[in-house]
Structure formats: structure tokens, C-alpha cells
Amino acid sequence: MSRPRTDTLIIGGGLHGLSAALHLARAGLRVSVLEESWVGRHASGASAAGVRTLNRHLAELPIALEALDMWHHIEAIVGDHCAFRPDGQINVAEFSHQVRVLEKRLAMTRAAGYEHVELIDREELRRLVPAISPHCVAALIARRDGAADPHRTLRAFRRSAEAAGATIYERCGVTAIERVGSEWRVRAGRSDFTAPTIVNAAGAWAAKIAQMVGDDIPLGHKASMMMVTERLAPFLKPTVSAVGRTLSFKQTDRGTLVLGGGLQGRADVEAQASFVDFTELSKGARAAVDLFPSVDRVRVVRTWTGIEAKTDDLLPVIGPSPRADGVYYAFGFSGHGFELVPVVGAILADLIVRGSTERQIEAFSASRLINERVAA
Ligand SMILES: Cc1cc2nc3c(=O)[nH]c(=O)nc-3n(C[C@H](O)[C@H](O)[C@H](O)COP(=O)(O)OP(=O)(O)OC[C@H]3O[C@@H](n4cnc5c(N)ncnc54)[C@H](O)[C@@H]3O)c2cc1C
């Protein structure tokens, strides 16, 4: 079946595909999102939804700080607050020798001209996080950071993209792409879609889509694990991580504790399945109890994993394909793409509608990763 021609086809109905759809549709383009399963099926629906500029790679900071401003006004952008709470993100030093690590990070950030992070002492840490173990000595804090609700965010981006005119096709996986004149013909399910531009936002499967247009982009993958506990009385506002620990720890509005931070399970990318490694996950629980001794009897009620693409330098790929005219990339977020969601769609709209962007995206070019085929 041949579908009506659109201006842009977006492959992938995760948050980055939806954000692209929203910004492009608002700019007046006819947009269709093609999603193999259902919206939010993979990383975006599994996310811890941390909105973190703290300890970001310097190359990501310009767009991460702009995204943070957008999070502070998210209701004006998507008509819902997405349960965004700007209660800060804190990276704790448990021992005095770790304070040097924090000081070094702070100095590096300041030297690059950024002021959003500060070093706090034991007293300020205790004031902000009264339940923290008394052995913790200092912390870095980004006070305007925070966390949102991933499912509420998905619903809000979907609703506002559709209200702006985007069409979302679920259970519509892309299996082939070919060039026909100045257009791309995309086969998805039993349908053929055509458009002059494509956005590849296919998450862990983005390399497969890139190959269909002739780009060989090596991608690894992550299978980050999460756990959530029973409800407790409110005792914690910021999101807490710790130097040398794979932990991110926060309490939601509902009282549950959500633990993540990048502990890795196992993924079968081809089968679109991922699995919890309980031995590994127990390290997260151990770290949480070391930092918050009062949670040692709390029951874990659910664990899960999500699959997502990882690049060698852990920076995303955002921008045009170097060789496939009209193809744009937004993938490889390497475990920290939720925070960037509002701004990446705006960047893609700049590139597709205006042909360029003032935002700093040079570090995210696909060409830095592309495997050039050696001529025989
Ligand atoms: C457990 C976990 C915790 C995380 N915590 C945080 C956090 O605290 N803070 C943060 O900033 N980031 C976090 N992240 C990362 C963040 O969630 C992701 O970077 C972000 O959601 C990626 O969104 P996406 O749209 O690129 O990918 P996805 O949400 O994976 O969407 C890609 C979509 O493409 C679809 N697709 C694939 N192939 C095809 C095809 N052939 N045709 C059509 N559709 C296709 C898939 O079905 C999928 O729905 C976390 C990730 C995980 C897994």
C-alpha cells in the first residue's frame, strides 16, 4: 500500500523521534513517525528520566544546558509538566581522597566557562540530604537539575506532536529504504512511504537503518538496569550519585525509591530483549544502603532493563548523514539522552527546515564514527 507523501519520515517512536516530530510539525512540515513496536517501547519507556547536566561531557554542555532551560518551561512546550521536579542532582564524595575528584571536575567545568555546578561541604550536604550516611564528606551539586516521569513525558510529547499534525504509525517497522529520484522510499510493514527527508531515531537499531542508506556506523549497546522499591514517607528530594559507585538514587512523588545509574544487564538486540543480572544489580542495592543506611530493610518491588545504542566516545550522533542527502541522525545517546530530548528535536528542525543550526553540534557528527569502506 502506498501512503500519502510527507515532508519528513521519522524512524523510531521513542522520545527523540517524538521530539523531532513535534518541532518539525510545528515548523509546518508534514511528518510521519514510523515505530516498529509502540511508542516508548524501548529506552524511552525504561528510562530513569534524570534531567542531569552534572558531570556531563563538556561537548554536550551547551545543548544540555539549553535543554535544562527547556525542562524548566516544559509545560509551555508540551502542555504538561511531565512531573519534572528541579530538586537538583548531587554527586557525593564518601571519603576525603575523593574530594579531589570533585574539585578537578569543578575546575574543568569552570575553566570552560560554566557556572552551573558548585562544591558543597558536609554541612550543606546534610542540610539538603538529611538521610545521607554521616561518613559522606562533600558533594558536587547542579541545583537546577532534576528528574521527570518518563511515561508522562512520552504521553505529553506524543499528544503535542499529534496536535501539531504529526501522524504516528505503530507496529510499522522499517525494513528497506531506497532512493527514487530526489525522494526516499521507505518500506514499513506492508506500506511504502515517500519523503525527501528522513530522521533516523531508531535507538539501539539505528545502525541497521543507517546501513540502509549506505552509512556504516559502528554502535555498541547498553542494557541499563533499574529497580524500584515499595513506597516510603518522603525523605529525599535531589537525585544522588556517588564517586566510584554505579548508582543513581532518588525518591519519586509517590514515595517509591528508584535506583539506577548504569549497572548493566544483558541484551539480545536482534530479539529486542534484555535481561536483569541480579548479581550485578545487587551492587546498586549495596551502594544505596551504604549511602542511606535507613533503607536497608526496604523491599524492591520491580526491576527492569532497557536497550539503547552506545558510541565509542559516549557522545550521541546528531546531524546530517555525510553521504545520504536528506537523511538526519539522532541516536547513540549512550545512557543519557533523556535530558536532551527537548533540544534535539529543535536542532533537527533547524537542520531540516533552515539547512543549518547555530547550536553547537560539531562533536556529534556521524563522520567521526563512520567506517569508510576500503576500496578493493
Ligand atoms: C534503564 C535506563 C535508564 C536511563 N536513565 C536515564 C536518565 O536518568 N537520564 C537520561 O538523560 N537518560 C537516561 N537514559 C537514556 C534515555 O532514556 C535514552 O537516551 C532515550 O530515551 C533514547 O530515546 P530514543 O528515542 O533515542 O530511543 P528509544 O526510546 O529506544 O526509541 C527508538 C525506537 O525506535 C524503534 N525502532 C527501532 N528499529 C525500528 C525500525 N526498523 N522501524 C521503526 N522503528 C524502529 C524502537 O522500537 C524504539 O521505540 C536511560 C536509559 C535506560 C535504558
Describe this structure in words.
The protein is α+β, with helices and mostly antiparallel strands and 376 residues long. The protein folds into 2 domains: 8-49 and 151-216 and 313-368, FAD/NAD(P)-binding domain (3-Layer(bba) Sandwich), CATH 3.50.50; 89-143 and 220-310, D-Amino Acid Oxidase, subunit A, domain 2 (D-Amino Acid Oxidase, Chain A, domain 2, 2-Layer Sandwich), CATH 3.30.9. The chain is 28% helix and 27% strand. The chain has 10 helices and 21 strands. The protein has helices spanning 15-26, 43-46, 61-72, 74-78, 96-111, 122-128, 150-163, 206-212, 278-291, 341-354, and strands spanning 8-11, 31-34, 50-51, 89-93, 118-121, 138-142, 146-147, 167-169, 174-180, 183-188, 191-195, 197-200, 220-231, 239-242, 248-251, 256-260, 266-268, 273-275, 300-310, 317-320, 327-331. The strands form 5 sheets. It has an 8-stranded mixed beta sheet. A 6-stranded mixed beta sheet has the order 8-2-1-12-21-20, sandwiched between helices. A hairpin with a 5-residue loop joins strand 14 and strand 15 (248-251). Helix 1 runs parallel beside helix 7 (150-163). It starts with 7 loop residues before the first strand and ends in a 22-residue tail after the last helix. The relative contact order is 0.20. The model has no long low-confidence stretch (mean pLDDT 96). Flavin-adenine dinucleotide binds at residues 11-17, 34-37, 41-44, 46-50, 52, 173-174, 201-203, 205, 209, 224, 226, 260, 306, 308, 331, 333, 335-339.
